[in-house]
Amino acid sequence: MKSESIKIGLVGLGTVGGGVYEILEKHRSLLAQRIGAPVEIKKIAVRSKGKKRGKKIPAALFTEDVGEILRDPEIRIVVEVMGGTKEAKTLAFAAIKAGKHLVTANKALLALHGKEVFTAAMKAKVDVCFEAAVGGGIPILRALREGFVANEIRSLYGIVNGTCNFILTEMSQKGADFQSTLKRAQELGYAEADPTFDIDGWDAAHKLAILVSIAYGVHVPLQKLFVEGIRRVSAFDLECAKRFGFEIKLLAIAKSQGGKIQARVHPTMIPAGSMLAAVRGVHNAISIDGDSVGEGMLYGAGAGSGPTASAVVGDIVEVARNLIAGVAYTVPPLGLYTDKVRDAAIESVGALRSSYYLRFQATDRPGVLSKIAAILGRHRISISSVYQNVREEGRVVPIVILTHEALEKDIQAAIAKVDRLEVMKEKTLLIRVEENCR
Ligand code: NAP
Ligand code: HSE
Predict the structure, then answer these.
(1) Environment class of residue 85 by beta-carbon count within 10 Å: exposed (0-12), middle (13-18) or buried (19+)?
(2) Report field, pTM of the whole predicted structure over 0.70
(3) What are the tens digits of pLDDT across the range 174-191?
(4) Ligand 2: distance of its center to the CA of 160 in Å?
């Protein structure tokens, strides 16, 4: 065991940073044994030193100037848990340039600027670790990069946003309302600083971009992903889903076929008896189908202080062990050497074949259903079920249709026509169905 400690600069002491501090304190000697040397936080950069933190932390550790961390030659590992993309990007490049290893939980940073960050890290021969960026406490990235390395990945999909899963679970099981449940998710430390990233699907899209990058060894331009959030999913839709034997989950889905990759995030109807349907609250689960191993699933807490900090500390330990061994960059961030990483060929969502749940908000009057059915028929869309639970002539009521498998391009064209009917009072809601999900 080395007596000299490995020094860390922690940038951010919020939900995640606070958890990292607690674990490093609580497991100081256990981690030292596991690493072969103690790790020590030498400086903590925060936005405001004066803020009350409810933790006994020596005042001398705090700074409002990240430069103090960057300029300190003793600090070998910079842990970025402040969030955002602008300042975080500046910090990441400055840390790499200063020869420091980087641990980050920042999926937005990596989804937007991963290519440049990884290239800079490869040139500087420093590690960039980001396990906490996807799946909270689930070691999904390490599993994908190392445990599944022998496989071609045929598909991966799952629940990767704890906030949305918490909201959908509370709405479905307790009839809770959207806004107050989102507020609770924020109080529990699950949501992003700007929670629209969660509910509009962008946080899941950032994570999907990272997963796809590692699974298929590609860079994923974010704008190529199809992204839809959960704002329009209502208690009525959750109730209807149950009636049809489904649950609604926000899924991130990637499938590879013939050199093209489907990559999409959207609310999805999945069989009520599937394993994913049983993933509740803040939990995440990701199913991976590899050509040798077959299909498996990883499950655990997807957000919050302890679980996320557990993943960050796992990365700190990896870097610290590398420092002791005198190596770096032994496992490249995307699982293959970055100069071999090509740009992803992402298939347009229009090419998707799926069955669909369609909710029309229409004035209840004779002939409405036949008009909708006629338009669907003209677009080669076959109906499997129809449901209307209220009969209020002249009032706006929901009409639900489940379709057989159809081409998304046809569905979109049909909906655009239906929405132009005079009886339609709201944009039609479409939810894709994944009948075969585990
Ligand atoms: P948070 O609770 O809002 O904490 C942010 C921390 O960063 C605060 O301590 C803040 O300082 C500090 N900070 C902000 N701007 C700074 C700057 N310019 N210089 C120095 N310090 C600065 O955020 P969080 O929930 O811990 O999330 C942090 C990161 O982890 C984000 O990238 C997020 O996406 C990611 N993440 C979060 C979770 C989760 O469950 N929360 C899970 C996985 C990944 P003050 O304390 O002085 O305001
Ligand atoms: N806001 C994110 C979520 C945090 O709810 O999943 C974990 O990445």
Answers:
(1) middle
(2) yes
(3) 999 999 999 999 999 999
(4) 8
